[in-house]
Amino acid sequence: MKIVLPVAGNGLRLRPYTENVPKCLLPVAGKTILDWIVEDTLFLKPTETIFITGYKAEVVDQFLTKRPDWGKTRTVVQSNPQGLGEAISLSLPFVSDDEPLLIILGDTMFEADLSILQNEQENVLYTFKVADPKRFGVAVTDTAGRIQRLVEKPQEFVSDEAIVGIYYIKDVKVLKENLRFLMENDIRTKNEFQLTDALEMMIQKGCKFHTAPVGKWLDCGLAETLLETNAQVLARNDNSASVSAEGCKIIAPCHIGKNVKLVNSTIGPNVAIGDNAVVENSTLKDAVVWDDVKVIDKNLSDAIVHE
Description:
The chain is α/β, with parallel strands linked by helices and 307 residues long. It is 19% helix and 32% strand.
């Protein structure tokens, strides 16, 4: 199996936090978004993980040099982004027709059972039941859970199973053919080459797809939702019980990074503090503090502190 992670986006909705780093490298609960995603896939033992980069590509390249335990990795630059379909097509020269492909959007945090893919014989789209399907692309299934068609932002109810950005493709050869057809014939949706269009073509050609559920689908697209996600995943990386500092109160869950200096402060709940940070005479709650940042004489809540 090979894994492809498109991480080319510029994260405009998260400015100023993405001025110097791509969205996928923003810190959440003591790790980057990309750490959380990739670490959840390592047990699948991919032969290679391919990152489709664009915005701040050099920062991702440098980051990957610090992750040798991720195995074989490759970056491919999407220099003129024209949609997710184009991004995936850039990885396909490095994927053989008979090797399954797992595509995960590089800004999608989730809790899902990927172990089912180890013996999977069909294509799989992971989905999450949503209250307002009009905002999402959805999968329309039969009673056996097989996908009949994909519908983008349906204005009339056809399904509440939103496609979350985790795609397992067994029929790689057909995916390649369909993406090539879209681009050679300049077939776009909303002026972009869409992966969903290629998947819909696969379904209509008889390729078998079924859905798999996502337990949690965690949004990192806005500052406020990134803070919500930080709070939800901190339990998986809570080290507050092992941290003590004179004059400080630490309320779980929290993650305190390496070489952090805490003085006369109240930390938590739901606080992640990066390496080498300093917090003095302050109160932090529901906050993310980046590496090397100093917080002195502050009372902060619902905050991302990056400088």
